[in-house]
Design brief:
Layout (H helix, E strand, L loop, with lengths): L7 E5 L4 E6 L4 E7 L8 E4 L3 E6 L7 E6 L7 E4 L4 E6 L5 E6 L3 E6 L4 E7 L5 E6 L5 E6 L3 E6 H5 L8 H4 L2 E4 L5 E6 L7 E6 L3 E6 L5 E6 L3 E7 L5 E7 L7 E5 L12 E2 L8 E7 L4 E6 L4 E5 L4 E6 L9 E5 L12 E2 L2 E2 H8 L3 H60 L1
Antiparallel strand pairs: 1-2, 1-28, 2-3, 4-5, 5-6, 6-7, 8-9, 9-10, 10-11, 12-13, 13-14, 14-15, 16-17, 17-18, 18-19, 20-21, 21-22, 22-23, 24-25, 25-26, 26-27, 29-30
């Protein structure tokens, strides 16, 4: 039986770094630098790249693109305004960025060209979610609304001449404060959309009709929400005065909008507010990240913390994404990233910088030696050609002398 492909957790920070962890070993194996990222300011681009929002104190900021083998950005995308949340299509060809004006900006990758900008909300965009088949982009905002857009309309050139009413599928109105996170089920048009907010509520919505189904009230503001793989339970990340740090769960069996939901707080709490939450290891575990830099892995069945992702230089956390599905083209699920075994990949990425530089110098020396050897070989070939030319001239001259001597002997006879 083939083993599942590995999963990597990446956390971004306003302090200027992105940290990568393996969810199986709970160890930090690489750090990216150069991006001061706000809330939800990180996204995975296909299977090869990472995007991070960068807030600058001297300009509109940018979106930085990274690959998996370099700690610094390889490309800087200029943005028309400061942006925070990011989301990308599954193939990594298009990136959506939420601006502080309420506009959604769509960029084509890897060039980073601006395809479209739409006024989706009246206040800053706070979060994004793309549904399972990649056909819908769902945005939440500080204005308390949720907007649902068909992705093809956001990327259509003709949409630039359309009004927002021609592009939007639904606008969901009901929250009294900032929408902090959104999740959606797997039922296609019959899916349920769940949004959470700083107004201490989770709201359930019908995707088909764009109508409100139910509201669940919590004792604290909420920063994140996720459903388990069977959609039988939902989990929320709680915050009260910056100190709650609780995880709450509630059952979703049957039709949750037809009865009262009573979420339960888990026993163990983070020391600070939980800013991100995700299911990992194919639904077996829950991962929570606190604003203070703690990242915990929970067992969903027992609701206990089984691992703590350790990194002394973590600092604060502003966002979290899970990179998954790394395997060779053709998908044999053997734990390889782009043809490389993950164990070797992590080992190489974990090398000290001095050792990497020494390896680079050794490689440069080998290249120079190779170039020198080629030059020597070319010089030797030139000398050989000259010697061969001289030898041929001597042989031809000797043949001419022999012919001349032979003619005189015949004349004497």
């Amino acid at each position: 039986m083939s083993s599942p492909s590995p999963q990597i957790a990446l956390t971004c920070s306003p302090d200027g770094h992105i940290t990568a962890y393996t969810t199986s070993s709970a160890t930090a194996f690489f750090r990216f630098s150069g991006s001061h990222s706000p809330r939800n300011g990180i996204a995975i681009l296909g299977k090869k790249h990472i995007a991070a929002s960068h807030v600058s104190g001297t300009g509109p900021g940018a979106v930085h693109l990274y690959n998996w083998w370099s700690s610094t950005p390889y490309h800087r995308i200029s943005v028309p305004e400061p942006v925070a949340p990011l989301s990308a299509t599954s193939d990594g060809r298009y990136l959506f960025a939420g601006g502080i004006s309420g506009h959604i900006h769509a960029f084509s990758l890897p060039a980073g060209e601006l395809v479209q900008s739409f006024p989706a909300h009246s206040k800053p965009i706070s979060c994004f979610e793309i549904n399972g088949d990649g056909s819908l982009l769902i945005s939440g905002s500080n204005d308390g609304t949720v907007a649902i857009f068909p992705v093809y309309k956001l990327l259509s050139v003709s949409s630039s001449r359309s009004s927002i009413s021609d592009v939007i599928l639904h606008r969901l109105i009901g929250h009294e404060s900032c929408v902090t996170a959104i999740t959606i089920g797997i039922g296609g048009i019959n899916s349920t959309v769940i949004s959470c907010s700083l107004d201490c509520t989770c709201k359930f919505w019908s995707l088909m009709h764009g109508t409100h189904l139910n509201t669940v009230t919590f004792p604290c503001a909420l920063w994140g929400i996720v459903m388990d793989t069977m959609e039988s339970e939902f989990y929320t990340a709680g915050l009260v005065a910056g100190s709650d740090g609780s995880v709450y769960s509630g059952g979703l069996d049957g039709q949750p909008w037809k009865h009262e939901l009573n979420p339960v707080a888990w026993e163990r709490k983070h020391g600070g507010p939980i800013v991100a939450i995700a299911t990992i290891n194919y639904g077996q575990n829950l991962l929570t990240a606190s604003e203070e830099g703690d990242v915990w892995i929970w067992d969903l069945e027992t609701r206990v913390v089984v691992k703590v992702l350790a990194d002394k230089e973590m600092g604060s956390i502003s966002g979290l994404v899970i990179a998954k599905g790394f395997e060779e083209v053709g998908g044999n699920g053997n734990g390889r990233i782009g043809g490389w075994n993950l164990g070797l990949y992590i080992e190489e990425m974990s090398r000290p910088m001095r050792e990497v530089m020494e390896m680079g110098m050794a490689l440069n020396g080998a290249v120079e030696d190779r170039s020198r050897a080629i030059n020597n070989l070319e010089s030797a070939m030139e000398i050989y050609e000259k010697l061969l030319e001289l030898l041929l001239k001597e042989v031809m001259a000797g043949n001419s002398d022999d012919d001349g001597h032979g003619g005189d002997e015949d004349k004497d006879e």
